[in-house]
């Protein structure tokens, strides 16, 4: 028992002279190592709100909220429930929509500060009003396909939207589909019906 007490005394004297071994956190921030898996953060420019990360999150920490009336999709991340597994980053469709940072000092008394979200415009089917995906998601696909995107009118019309060549207020088909309705933004089911209505009716 004598020697441990002497060791403690030696430590106490050393700490008095040189200061404690511990760091003065959080007053003095301590940067995490480069590969540390900290809080995930969205990049609103890289994210197209496709919802793939929502599907793979094992902690159900990402939520997809569609508002058809406002034509908006929100992807909400609640960092307070995140387990920092990195699945969202690994499975991100664009590869740049969400990234794990090295932030780890995330404690807060205000839970709303743990929320982060990205909002994008929804793409709605002209025929049945179903949600197709987001406009940015279709644009991203069109960009990757290049000239091949012009084989699909929905992709082509989304790409041309930027050039203001599209009549946004075009009314939906009055009764049934006709050949002219092929050049519309349509969900896969409506596109099949438009294609088949004249070819096989
Ligand atoms: S790091 Fe894991 S738990 Fe956290 S949001 Fe991404 S997928 Fe979900
Ligand atoms: S682009 Fe990436 S971050 Fe954005 S919703 Fe899709 S998978 Fe998630």
Q: Can you tell me about this structure?
A:
The structure is a single chain. This protein is of the alpha+beta class and 201 residues long. The protein folds into 2 domains: 30-123, Alpha-Beta Plaits; 125-201, no CATH class. The chain has helices spanning 2-18, 52-56, 87-91, 135-145, 153-161, 188-199; strands spanning 40-42, 62-67, 72-78, 98-100, 115-124, 131-134. Strands 2-3-5-6 form a 4-stranded antiparallel sheet. Strands 1-4 form a two-stranded antiparallel sheet. α4 (135-145) crosses α5. It is rod-shaped, with a radius of gyration of 27 Å. The N and C termini lie far apart (97 Å). The protein binds iron/sulfur cluster (SF4) (2 copies).
Brief write-up:
By secondary structure, this protein is of the alpha+beta class. It has helices spanning 2-18, 52-56, 87-91, 135-145, 153-161, 188-199; strands at residues 40-42, 62-67, 72-78, 98-100, 115-124, 131-134.
């Amino acid at each position: 028992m004598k020697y441990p007490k002497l060791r403690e005394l030696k430590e106490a004297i050393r700490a008095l002279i040189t200061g404690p071994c511990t760091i003065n956190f959080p007053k003095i921030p301590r940067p995490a190592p480069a590969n540390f898996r900290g809080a995930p953060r969205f990049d609103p420019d890289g994210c197209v709100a496709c919802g793939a990360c929502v599907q793979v999150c094992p902690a159900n920490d990402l939520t997809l909220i569609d508002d058809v009336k406002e034509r908006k999709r929100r992807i909400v991340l609640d960092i307070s429930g995140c387990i920092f597994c990195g699945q969202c980053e690994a499975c991100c469709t664009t590869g740049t929509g969400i990234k794990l940072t090295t932030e780890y000092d995330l404690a807060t008394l205000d839970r709303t500060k743990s929320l982060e979200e990205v909002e994008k415009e929804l793409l709605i089917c002209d025929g049945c009003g179903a949600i197709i995906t987001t406009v940015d998601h279709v644009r991203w696909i069109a960009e990757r396909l290049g000239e091949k995107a012009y084989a699909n009118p929905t992709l082509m019309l989304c790409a041309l939207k930027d050039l203001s060549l599209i009549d946004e207020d075009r009314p939906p088909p009055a009764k049934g589909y006709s050949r002219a309705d092929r050049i519309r933004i349509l969900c896969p089911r409506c596109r099949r019906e438009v294609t088949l209505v004249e070819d096989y009716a």
